[in-house]
Design goal:
442 residues; pyruvate-formate lyase- activating enzyme; OB fold (Dihydrolipoamide Acetyltransferase, E2P); six-stranded parallel beta sheet; five-stranded mixed β-barrel; 22% strand
Length: 442
Amino acid sequence: MPTFLIASLGCSKNTVDADSMAQLLRQADYHPTDDPATADVVIVNTCGFIAAAREESLEVLRDFAAQKRPGQFLIAAGCLTQRYGEEVAREVPGVDAILGTRRWMDIVDVVRRLRATPHPQPLYHLPEAPTVGRDERGALRVSRQGGSAYLKIADGCRRKCAFCAIPLIKGTLVSRPREAVLNEARALQEAGVQEIILIAQDTTDYGHDRGERDGLASLLEDMVQVAPEVPWIRVMYAFPGYVTDRLIEVMATRGQIVPYLDMPLQHAHPATLRRMQRPANMDWVHRTLEKVRQAMPEVALRTTFIVGYPGETEEEFQALLDFVEEIRFDRVGAFQFSFERGTPSEPLGDPVPAEVKEDRWERLMALQQGISLERNQQFVGRVMDVLIEGYDAEAGLAIGRTYRDAPEIDGLVLVEGRPEVGQMARVRITGAMPYDLTGVLV
């Protein structure tokens, strides 16, 4: 039986694509392996979002190419190849095929073509038209990670954020059929999943391409009906301006939907936001966050910011610090601006010096660290549900998350005792750190 290995880089959306490709390969009688030396087909599902991600993807491809044995095929797939396919083939000799992210579902066809006919030059498979939700070949668009599972509800993005290359990579928004999404939620419930995490480039835009209004809120209402036994349903990547009153009401009144709002704001100064081609109405942001906290007093608020965007003055950056100090988010991610050619921000260049970007990033994260610690300390002494994800035998501690923490990007709970991995446990919180909590089993 032929074997395959998939290395997936980047975000959870990429992980779903990789797992979907793996499903299709298994259905075609390919067997997964973790050993690159024995794999007949090695697939690197690349990330191409920013320069650092591109370099990592190329480095991983070079490593696999250097180990490549006769008769083995190396396929570069994903975001980097969709936009820079010819550069990937030029910079990594030994790549046999280039598969774009918009046609991940053709992976079996590409492998069969490679095995059927010699290809002295890389085989390119980069159709432009995205067919998300319309030609998925029966693959579930999910990625299970222990007791949690990511469920992709849409792909692509119709936004025109000046710094972002995603529309160039993924194309415009295409929502997946509602029934397909709900069927996958049912399947995850039957598999015993404890948390479903809805992901897309912009979850709040779900259904817009079909003329739906408040499509995400409606989808959530349906999901709690079809998967009532899943304790947690989490929503990621909400776009400012599209967190509607109805969405807030649905999140607040359906107990399965965790009170967690991830709304990447990118900045807080209107002038910076206008240069970013992002929503710049900060009055709306304040009013909406107030509504969210009134409807869900226990809500965990997460956002993401970019520092060092072209033209960012010290005054604009100080406005960002003042905003963070005022709102007191539970979680903040921050990135230094990465110049991306071909994006609307290209004419602005990259004028902010690297040392200024680094200094601003450090100042922002130092401020947020103190706020995160303060927020965490409020939970000491409380008993909370914790989804257990692993056990460190050497330390004698279980590792899990509360509803306040999305996997991989937020904090953890270190639990004394040995609860069952993949299940919920009742934990009394005994200590707080800037990002993590400690606790004991109740």
